Amino acid sequence: MKMLMFDTESFWFETFSKTLDHVDDIEREESFTDSAVVFIHVEAEDEPRKNKVVKSAVANLKWYLNKVNKKRIVLHSFAHLSSSKSSPEFAVEVILAIRDKLESKGIEAHTTAFGYFSEFSIHVRGESLAKVFKEI
């Protein structure tokens, strides 16, 4: 798994086009202020180690939220951080598991529309920790 974490002033997205035939047809637009936004890429080698990957991702995201003093996070599937890709079904399962575990720890967690290309706008803060890459 690869994660690119951002400390943002604002993040806006709108579904643009569906990329997976089996997902529901939706039109969705949302915006978030003062949140962490994480681009997540789930890799094929994550499939046999799901529980470890989810646990490690949650620990890293909690660390990041603490460092940037945020209580809200947006998880965005972004399959462009590696040439290795898990199945789409596994990727959404992992992202939702991460979201659920964060929520169970009292963190406000959101996901963008899975299986869609989205138009987005992101305002990332300038500090060093505002942009962090993690490989799990």
Automatic annotation (TrEMBL):
Keyword Endoplasmic reticulum (UniProt): no
Domain Threonyl-tRNA synthetase editing: 1-136
GO CC annotations, alphabetized: cytoplasm
Keyword tRNA-binding listed: no
GO molecular function, one term: zinc ion binding
Enzyme class: ligase
InterPro entries in the record: DTD-like_sf (IPR023509), Threonyl-tRNA_syn_edit_dom_arc (IPR015011)
Pfam families: tRNA-Thr_ED (PF08915)
EC code(s) of this entry: 6.1.1.3
Gene3D superfamilies the UniProt entry points to: D-tyrosyl-tRNA(Tyr) deacylase
Domain of life the protein comes from: Archaea
Keyword line: Aminoacyl-tRNA synthetase, Ligase
Protein name: Threonyl-tRNA synthetase
Organism name: Methanococcoides methylutens MM1
Taxonomic lineage from the root: Archaea, Methanobacteriati, Methanobacteriota, Stenosarchaea group, Methanomicrobia
